[in-house]
Amino acid sequence: MNTESSSVPAWTLLQWQELGQPRQAWWRNESATALPRKVQTADDRMPADQAYRLICEGTALAWRGDFHNARQLVLALGRRLDRKSRGKQAAPVASPVGFPQAFHLHRQAQAQRARVLSGVLIEFDAQWCCALRRAPDWRQACEEAWGALPGGEHGVLIPLRELLGAVGAHEWRKKGVEIPALGAKARIHAHYGVFSPVRGEYLDLLARAPLPAAGKDQAWEAWDIGTGTGVISALLAKRGVQKIVATDMSERALACARDNLQRLGFERRAQLVHTDLFPEGRSGLIVCNPPWLPGKTASLLDQAIYDEDSRMLRGFLQGLAGHLLPGGEGWLILSDLAEHLGLRSRESLLAWIAEAGLQVLGREDIRPRHGKVQDSGDALHAARAAEVTSLWRLGMR
Ligand SMILES: C[S@@+](CC[C@H](N)C(=O)[O-])C[C@H]1O[C@@H](n2cnc3c(N)ncnc32)[C@H](O)[C@@H]1O
Predict the structure, then answer these.
(1) Residues 63/43, Cβ–Cβ less than 8 Å
(2) Which CATH number covers residue 327?
């Protein structure tokens, strides 16, 4: 078992001065924000322009005012960022030649936005209670997202923006996402920090691809590499696969997959393994839906979207032949958005497949149905509008 990349960052103690006294609280770098260089307190009297300037200079603001006013302040910071970027923003880029640059600028702007909006910090005690006026009781959402604090008398400082993300994730976790391919009213509940199958069209591909014969004479075993919420394992179980081995590098994902497989009654058919890509042995069917875009991961939440240096995609392809039973198939689910953005070429994908001793047995395509495809104001619109998601059926050459 390889647990080298733990999914949850360590807590560190952040120190600052307040009313002449030294203060400390736990801090954890969950998103794109780095440990603040300086912390100072702020309350309802601080004008948004001053807050914006301080945060841009590297000072985070530990909020001491009314909770709702902190939310207003974050909105006001967002408006300042919008105004600034409106002046600079280039027109949407239509040509694929312009895309890598447009994409990198888009990510830079997102990172800058995250940094500024994360500059307003909310303090909680060790039981996740917040003493601010009109602070809601968000204990459950915080515990789900961040678990127990390391202990001691210290509380924790959380950027309000991340807090709102955790509360949104908590609501989504309760509600779940309907997955028609799993049957009427079947839902998948994504935990905080786990890739949610909200864009579920690739599951339609998985529901209809013909299951390979290899392995059918043995107890049918399929693998789900990078299981996330466990949705692919559940779908394979629904299709009659009796045993599934599901892997992930993220402990959060494995806990989430366990939860979903239990809810759906498939827990006895699935084994969850914390490992890098493949478990030991061979299988007749190995499915993988790696993050679709090559790119640096600035945060843990990025890890389900961005695949740095295409490490997971290439690792899956390179290891596949060594883990397939004779006649077995590898199913790679991959969107071609990276190709439309100029981040990866079709030729390089085909070359990686060939270099791994694999051949393409078939390919099924589907167009995304999500709202962004229709958003012509999006700088990446032309690429998103052309996107196709494919299920590549791969076999040994
Ligand atoms: C795009 S998500 C797909 C999740 C799920 N299979 C689905 O289709 O909804 C990719 C998943 O792969 C996991 N992952 C990334 N690198 C991995 C690796 N080297 N080995 C195993 N899992 C990995 C991530 O934690 C994430 O859960």
Answers:
(1) yes
(2) 3.40.50.150
* Cβ(302) – ligand 1 distance below 6 Å: no
Q: What is the Å distance from ligand 1's center to 151 Cα?
A: 31
Residues 392-397 have a mean pLDDT of 97
Task: For residue 233, give the nearest of 251, 259, 199 by alpha carbon.
Answer: 259
- 3-state secondary structure string, 144-197? HHHCCCCCCCCEEEEEHHHHHHHHHHHHHHHHCEECHHHCCCCEECCCCCCCCC
374: exposed, middle or buried (Cβ count in 10 Å: 0-12, 13-18, 19+): exposed
Note the pLDDT of residue 232: 98
- CA distances 274 to 223, 228, 250, 285, 304, Å, are 13, 11, 7, 19, 16
Residue 90 clears pLDDT 80, i.e. is over it: no
Encoded tokens for 70: 């902190």
24 with 78, same domain: the answer is: yes
Q: For tokens 């040994």, what's the residue?
A: 396
* pTM: predicted TM-score of the whole model, two decimal places: 0.90
Residues 204 and 319 in one domain: yes
Give residue 6's pLDDT: 46
DSSP letter, residue 235: H
Residue 311 to residue 391: CA distance in whole angstroms: 19
Q: How close is the Cα of 61 to the center of ligand 1, in Å?
A: 35
Backbone angles phi, psi at 187, to 5 degrees: -130, 150
195 lines ligand 1 (CB under 6 A): yes
Domain identity same for 232 and 335: yes
Same domain, yes or no: 78 and 159: yes
In DSSP terms, 307 is beta-bridged to 294
Whole-number Å distance between alpha carbons of 292 and 338: 7
Does 347 lie in the same domain as 202?
yes
| CA 279–ligand 1 middle distance (angstroms) | 14
Closest C-alpha to ligand 1, atom 9: 197
- Inter-residue contact 360 to 353 (CB < 8 Å): yes
Which of 386, 361, 391, 362 has the alpha carbon at shortest distance from 372?
A: 386
- What domain range includes position 80? 12-172
- Provide the domain count of the chain: 2
Residues 228 and 356 in one domain: yes
Name the domain boundary from 121, 139, 172: 172
